[in-house]
Queue: 4 jobs
Job 1
Amino acid sequence: MYFSKSFIPILKNNPSEAKIKSHQLMLRVGMIKQSSAGIYSWLPLGFKVMKKIEQIVREEQNKIGAQEILMPTIQSSEIWKESGRYEDYGEEMLRIKDRQDREMLYGPTNEELVTDIFRSLIKSYKSLPQLLYHIQWKFRDEIRPRFGIMRCREFYMKDAYSFDITDDEALFSYNKFFLSYLKTFKRLDLTAIPMAADTGPIGGNLSHEFIILAETGESKIFTDKRIFELDSYGTDLNKKSLENLRMKYEEFYSVTDEKFNKEEFESKVSEENRLKTKGIEVGHIFYFGDKYSKPMNASVDLPGGKKDFVKMGSYGIGVSRLVGAIIEAKYDEKNEVMKWPISVAPYDVSIIPMINKNDTAALEKANKINLELLKNNIETIIDDTEENFSSKLKKMNLIGSPYQIIIGKQSDGDLLEFKEIGKETKKINLAEIIRILKEQKAKN
Ligand code: P5A
């Protein structure tokens, strides 16, 4: 992609309305554009990142045997009346009437709709467990949308739902998601810690929020620092090892403020290991048994001929929020340098030729390099403008490709100036650059 032809409208300065760095950067490099309060359009750079995050989330859902579906954004109020949440959900639900005067709503979440699908199509325990997920827009009429796409009204969520016959089996499903979330966030190069959390309007009595540390986060957390050392969790989907995995995390006191108990915190965590801080909630999982299946009559035939309500859980990841969360974790605001993890970077490499008027040699060289990189599935952006070097570098540092190739006076012959953002520039040939990039991309 030539920068001159891209739709990446970069602003000279930070927009004054943005209070946190992710919001600043996203507006500054034109990743999003607000269309009304808490509602955004996604422009090419932002959309590319979000789609890559979505794909990683999808792959990790598939690995635990979850099956992808797509439910609509608009739902009928009937099913919400059945579950009893139509009134309870309150002002956050955007209620709409169709031309027949039927009460509809823009889905804030899908427990009811998926339970309705399940109850009408699955009749026997033999079909269980079922893990279904979709990745779809949600709407919550937040009283105070803020921080750009971090707390907005329309947002993109992966939501999954599990159906089992016993509590024990249902916890097995819960633990599969627990593992899959750890793996998903790791692939995004984030350290997200599962913390015991309140269940709020979703309900149930078991829940974990997955939180990444950030001063600008809206969740207050109380945790044992040693939990950050847990890093190995394998890929084993065996019941016992998943149970052990969750227990390993639960050994360390780690809660959000609604669950906080001072005495417990101080008795379980030694003073030097106590950490009270803030974080961003990027995922949230719930176990709520028959909270929806009972009032909505979602049951299956059991082996002995009896019937029972299925035991359910739900599992959310804020796909659009993650774009901002990654920026909060990776953007060096002081030096105005963004480095996207290669797994989600909009471009793997920025090619920066130094172009003088009437001298096309550097651009020609850039084009040749570009062709070779594209052949190797390496995504590039070429700054083909005639701006000076420092303003080109500034721009590319904001766009945040993790690698840069600079084609200037120094790059005679085969050797190119190659730089991983934040590290020293190396002089190496193109074959070596391709080898490094392919190796980095393969790690994901
Ligand atoms: C779990 C899946 C649920 O809705 N029902 C289906 C359950 N959980 S949740 O915690 O309420 O939301 C899941 C994740 O969505 C993100 N999120 C938001 N992102 C941006 N703006 C918002 N207003 C917003 N609200 C929730 C969070 O990442 C949350 O963990």
Note: Residues 109, 140, 142, 151-152, 155, 157, 159, 202, 281-284, 286, 314-316, 318, 321 surround '5'-O-(N-(L-prolyl)-sulfamoyl)adenosine (CB under 6 Å).
Job 2
Amino acid sequence: MSTSSTAGKVIKCKAAVLWEPKKPFSIEEIEVAPPKAKEVRIKIVATGVCRSDDHVVSGQLATPFPVILGHEAAGIVESIGEGVTTVKPGDKVIPLFTPQCGKCEVCRHPESNFCMKNDLILPRGSMQDGSIRFTCRGKPIHHFISTSTFSEYTVVDEISVAKIDPAAPLEKVCLIGCGFSTGYGSAVQVAKVTKGSTCAVFGLGGVGLCVIMGCKAAGAARIIGVDINKDKFAKAKEVGATECINPQDFKKPIHEVLTEMTGGGVDFSFEVIGRHDTMISALSCCHGAYGVSVIIGVPPGATNLEMNPMLLLTGRTWKGAIFGGYKSKDAVPKLVADFMAKKFQLDSIITHVLPFEKINEGFDLLRSGKSIRTILTF
Ligand code: CND
Ligand code: ZN
Ligand code: ZN
């Protein structure tokens, strides 16, 4: 086991700090403390820009401030704390925004993945022990969903990191840290899309395109993309959509359009935007007797949604999932192996690669609808 010269020491490095909501990221020099017991310090090599990070900037997703965001990344282990057994310095790894402790009732349940040790539902913005490893200008800076990858170095708990194939290209497989797994898993193992079925995907961003890839891999015969930005249609078709529609092109509500197009409703629908109205549209467009609708988009926090329960009474199923339902620490190395075996590709999803310092440009590209995924490299 090689020990790096920085092991056990505080590392000074660059990070993008978000001091308060609705402000640009500020590139700062920060201090990253060494990992404590059962913790791992990682040198981040590449990190993607996901809408969930932007939801924190906009205020749609609550987490303590100031904060270092970023949750879709790949890197190399710099050093490990006492008692860490599943990774060692030099290993290529992917941080896991949904941990897998292996011990809680969720981890022990065969069908569920949202580990009780997650820092997403009641976020403390800290390590599992409640403390923080980042400081900047003398102030503690919070962690974000156990990952904080908008930093040259980050510290994560051992339950929040997976070792991957040493040959994996980190600037691509970083997408397996969120967008790919979330989208693909929602199709293949949350919805369990069936061969010959018809699917509707609302929202053709990075995650939505990976839902389409999953629907296609599962053998769906018809995959209808829905987006208000028609510039997204070409990519959606490239990854497997058989047709794409823009709700703004119709007078009728889009669920009625879809119901007519499919002679009664789709088999599977997916909301990959994060809006209440589209969650209802997606539910309503799936078949009244057997349709399955999956919520993937992160909704505005602390608000309720009105729905007519009759939609469910007739036989629809409404579900949702974090990270595509995958048990993260088990699944991520396998998904990377599948990528290396060319079972799926990630190039279509990556529209921009920028140096880390241009993080604000990466977010502008997302907000203006010009990018699918921007990868920031260090
Ligand atoms: P991105 O912003 O790239 O895509 C959203 C797409 O929705 C864009 O193409 C928009 O044009 C489109 N859109 C916006 N409004 C509408 C509308 N009213 N009708 C139709 N289309 C519309 O986002 P992303 O792909 O990075 O993420 C999508 C959602 O998934 C977002 O809410 C994000 O927070 C969430 C998510 C969930 C999870 C999970 O584990 N469940 C993980 N990561 C991201
Ligand atoms: Zn994400
Ligand atoms: Zn657990």
Note: The first strand starts at residue 11 and ends at 17.
Job 3
Amino acid sequence: MSRPWIDVVYGTRPEAVKCAPLVAELRRRASARTTVTVTGQHRQMADEVNASFGITPDVDLDVFRSGASLAETSSAIFGALAHRWAEAAPDAVVVQGDTASAALAAVAAYYAGSRVIHLEAGLRSGDLRSPFPEEGNRRLIAPVASLHLAPTDSAAANLRAEGVAPDDIVVTGNTGIDALHWQRTHPQRFDDPAMEEVVHGWDRLVLVTVHRRESWGGPLARVVAAVAETVTARSDVVAVLPMHPNPRVRREVVAAVGETDRVILCEPLPYAQFGRLLARAHCVVTDSGGVQEEAPALGVPALVVRDTTERGEGVEAGAARLIGTRREVVAAELAALLDDPAAHARMSRARELYGDGRAAPRAADAIERLLGLARAHSLAG
Ligand code: UDP
């Protein structure tokens, strides 16, 4: 009997990071034939992560077009996947998280007759407009998925509350933490010598990542201006802000930083280099989902510059603070972390809130069960 075919589909940097440990685990077990299809939604950023993890995609749909709207990109992804699976559909398609690539791949796989497996299932902010379009994307995936791999108990509870059968939900931890563990054992030198200088030359580093669509046109600029003003007022502090490639994000960030040279703008850092900087940071100011998970695992306080979060565990544990995007609030919260050692210490304890680094073996076990495969190679026990 031939082995079943699992196609893992993704298109952006965070999906590439979180799929990599599962692809490695499924390929190690070899109980199924596992292929990787990249959509090309984030061109260089996902390519870089694939290269870091030694993954060569089997198929590259290459849908990225500069300036394309969300709907145009989504339509291109859907059409290309329909074409890919027209002759033969995979037994199962794995999608991760909440991007357009994930949502459209889930629907295309469902139409093709494949079973849909959702990695990082069940995250909900409760607000369809925030984060946009991620909240809508992940809700679209749930009804067509046969297996929901939830990273945390609260994600599993969200799915049960929406009527997903408990037997179809498995709590695995987040594979992003598996990737982080891998990264910590594969330290990388910075390509950019300026980053080595930052790491060695400054007492305190504030790392900043801001890119969410709902922050464009005001909120993002306010956050960046608050960071610039706060670090400039302290002689031993520098901020680093790797800029998302989106041209609109770049324009807003550059304008908000203004003349100060204490906010260092750089290109997106390769995944392992970003992690090295994060581990060294005094704190992180972020609207990123993945960074909200990585920071507590490294004991780095996170100020979350959003109005809602689907990652409440960090806030509840005191490792993160959900502070919105008002300029004076961001400045005050950052100042507290810089000026009050006790406040900083309270948020700095490393915690396993999102996973223990063994999510991929648990996910692979659940996938093998779904496909009726033996668990001979299981590591998860
Ligand atoms: N990241 C990276 N380089 C950077 C900034 C972030 O490799 O310059 C990584 C980060 O470690 C995390 C992921 O990108 O794993 C988060 O991606 P992003 O913020 O784009 O998406 P989100 O997690 O919000 O969906």
Note: Residues 13-14, 17, 209, 242, 268-269, 271, 274-275, 288-291, 294 surround uridine-5'-diphosphate (CB under 6 Å).
Job 4
Amino acid sequence: MADISTNRENNPEAFDEFTQRTKKTKTNHGDEQGENGRESGKNVLSGFQTTTVLSDSAREKTIFVHGKLADQNAVVILEKTPIREGALSEIFAASTLELDMRNDIYCTYRLRSPPHLNEMKATVVCPATEKHVQKYQRQESFLVEETTDDYQSITLPFIQKQSFSVQWVYNILEKKAESERIVFEDPDPKLGFVLLPDFKWDQKQTDNLYLIAITHQRNIKSLRDLTSEHIPLLQNIFQKGKEAIQQHYSLPGSKLRVYLHYQPSYYHLHVHFTKLGYDAPGCGVERAHLLTDVIQNLHSDPHYYKTRTLSFPLRADDGLLAQFKEAGKL
Ligand code: M7G
């Protein structure tokens, strides 16, 4: 794998250069649609040079690519977007059809729909750190059981040194990015949060609805930090988050899966809201903790998450896994 030396933390100028370049593109074309890389007109990916395919899935219709964008390390994720029911009549009326095979009552065709009905979602991380490249690389996982002592002696020192930057989270809270995407905000500094679409969701249909609620409190890293003192915050997120989703997307709470990840990738407390039935990445039992269970557990034991052994999966080349192995825990 290519050497990953640039990142936002150790090379802010490089990050700024990419941001400036994309901002300039917006101005030049006067057709701005949103944040970095989302502007129409100019293709900021035209010079992307692929180094490796990190993973792909024919079933999910996704490919994760590592490469270079203007000499900086970048990860690009391409994903074919779902077919919307509302687009069906146009797809049937305006596409061309080429017969692949016919057998009795069975036919398959190549259907070429008009380009606007055949979009891909492209997510760009640039400059990407080595940790981003690892995150998106297909890898074997191992389940780790973390005692409270393990958390203090292994996990906490590791995440204090090596976790992803949460600058993007602060940008959202300070309205420096994605402000137009905010669905709901409770500005209370203790109980408040911002609810907005997760960047995995293209917002074209609610089948794969995915929002995140980010707390205004900045000192809660993860589930491990929660105590009964946070119950009002968690209840507030649960109640108001569900109400806002009902209002904006007409989906009742009974259609939502509301949970926290342990371990998260970003150590600033946030809650995931996904549509029940959507097999969202990371919604499996080994990583997702239902918010209702979390609240109940804290009711029954104020220090539940401070004292319990918690299990979670780690990918083969995760530095944290190496630390657990070194400590003879695996
Ligand atoms: P997580 O549990 O910390 O990690 O969740 P995960 O990515 O391994 O699930 C963080 C969530 O924030 C994920 O669902 C990400 O897709 C989402 N996310 C990450 N970033 C960098 C952004 C961003 O810049 N904007 C938005 N809206 N969502 C993001």
Note: The radius of gyration is 22 Å.
